[in-house]
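Q: Could you write out the predicted structure for this multi-component system? I'm mainly interested in how the pieces pack against one another.
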Amino acid sequence: MTKISLKDIAIKAKVSVGTVDRVIHKRGRVSQKALKKVQDAINELNYSPNFVARSLATKKQIKIAVFIPSPSLDSFWAQPLEGIRKAENFIKDFGFSIEVFTYNDQHPELIMQMTPQIMQGGFSCILAAPNNKEEFNQFFDQCKQNKIPYVQINTYLDRNDDLFICYIGQDSFGSGKLAAKLLDFTTKPSDTLLILHLEKEIYNAEHLIQKEKGFKEYFKIHNNHEIDIEREIFSDIHDKKKKKKFIRQMIKLYPNLAGVFVTTSKLHFVVEEFLEYGSDRIKFVGFDLIEENLSYLKKGQITFLINQNPTQQGYLAIMGIFDYLLKDETPSKIQHLPLDVVMEENLDYYLKEIKGTTMVS
Amino acid sequence: MTKISLKDIAIKAKVSVGTVDRVIHKRGRVSQKALKKVQDAINELNYSPNFVARSLATKKQIKIAVFIPSPSLDSFWAQPLEGIRKAENFIKDFGFSIEVFTYNDQHPELIMQMTPQIMQGGFSCILAAPNNKEEFNQFFDQCKQNKIPYVQINTYLDRNDDLFICYIGQDSFGSGKLAAKLLDFTTKPSDTLLILHLEKEIYNAEHLIQKEKGFKEYFKIHNNHEIDIEREIFSDIHDKKKKKKFIRQMIKLYPNLAGVFVTTSKLHFVVEEFLEYGSDRIKFVGFDLIEENLSYLKKGQITFLINQNPTQQGYLAIMGIFDYLLKDETPSKIQHLPLDVVMEENLDYYLKEIKGTTMVS
DNA sequence: CAAATTTATGTGGGCGCACACATAAATAAA
DNA sequence: TTTATTTATGTGTGCGCCCACATAAATTTG
């Protein structure tokens, strides 16, 4: 009942293990006759290589580069990083190692500066979160030139080259629809709902565009209440004066405001002001279980947060790369993770991460 | 930069690898002097064994038994099984194999009949879903006698012996609270909410008791609307006549019925009748993304389903056992998985499972 | 047809570890 | 002191695979 080994194949095909090895790795130098015998034996015995032994034998160290926004600038990224570390812990005995590079998505010009360093680091694969559309299209072009395969997480950039392995993350469009549904629980006829982008250069952030589209899509289908959908952009969130002014203006502009959908994790920057100047009817929906948002959720001032399984994103991406490099398994191109609806009552379970090496999706 | 190996330790401690091996495995036959030298070397070089090589060297096959309700009788169990298979696919190259035994929780007397077979199967570890309290306490006693460690999923049975490795699953109490919150979104003063157990022998199903407690707990804290909480038990769900009669009776008994919480995955058995005889104000909350429930969710007749991460439960349990047996890692005893609030808009993402060998939570 | 070249096949060492076995050192019994 | 006995230590083989190298067979060239 024990697994079929190379040797079993060799015996069955009446050749040496060296020949079988050559067939499996398509190294050539095998006669037609032997080739067929070996292939038949492999099929008959339903052989698949033992990747544990394979990993031990190929003593080559495999390096993976990770390129994500800095967790110290945006605490959201601590979570994917945690998943990445968890995966690293698992695959390190297979000779895999991980090197993390971080960027600031508010200063995308630095991304290009870091690119050469990453390209020349001798990495077998790159995991990147392409927050900035333009820069990362260039980055991935570089990957292509250097023949380095890559995986995307969190933000999806449509790429056609064959070095793009897969995307793992949320469906931004779907998350917009979900946000709409959550706000729609409490809408009344002729209410206003506001889509609020707290970022500059929206055009360059594909995921935000998709979220807005999804939100609007929901109300195209379900607009039984004649809800008024508005959208605004404001990026000076660190300038308190400007922020207050802006929010006052919003309240004035939209007297029937019943809900605010912030398309990033930055909802916490505006909740207080909306509550102060606006009516208490206003409900909020935003993204991500970062500390700053959680305090409002716990106080009941934010009703819903949408969680995008960040830890899982990082973990799955690394493990996918592992499968790809060690087992030659090609994953499906688009892997959408669940969009969790998080409120006070189920928050805890999302926070405590599963202990032990081997988490999983 | 390559990892420290046994040999490195041997050289540093000026002994042979055999001696190092003896120290690591506590096999004795090592002098005090040598012991100390080796321990010091291990600490200094921060050595940890390469579990890939270890697995290859210990050629022994490790068998894991899985004991869960039959997926053909309760389709919920297809999902944990999927996670189990996924994990199996990963660990099979490590010489691990899995054998699945199923039982019928409606006929717990058969559980004891199967027990000897499982105990004598030569398993290194058992994964069980202890739906029936009494029988599984006996079952786990047997595990203890036979010195076979075990992991619980989905239902938690408090056990004190040191062969109980861990529990992986939802927090039943918390899921009750969450259900209460979901129904409370639309309650009005003096509404009635009904906790409905569609099982017999509730006293023997610990998780159901906990769900009820959690539900009531929520309204102890949040009862601003003077909601009336009722609870009923009905188990003849396959007898349509009795079922209809029962539901009519409920409607009559509770004229202000605004919500029904079914504590298992069997909500689909009663939705239609409640909708037929009752007011359309009645909202439903139940568990599990099984096909029968999903059709109602998609039609908008069920608003919320609570998902208990079943696939993950199975996957994590097996991988936990793997870590436990191969890496000597002791996991934390209680691992609560997230309680996902699933509605029409985010359903899809929970259904499509991540492709590839190595999922992971 | 022998020699040189190309192509096909087999052999052996090693990855890091576990484990059986052989040997050496220390201690006890004769 | 010699011989058993116990205890300590080292060596060697193999897990399944990869890969470098040696050898053998087929083909080409002179």
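A: Regarding packing and overall arrangement: Residues 6-48 of chain B form one domain.
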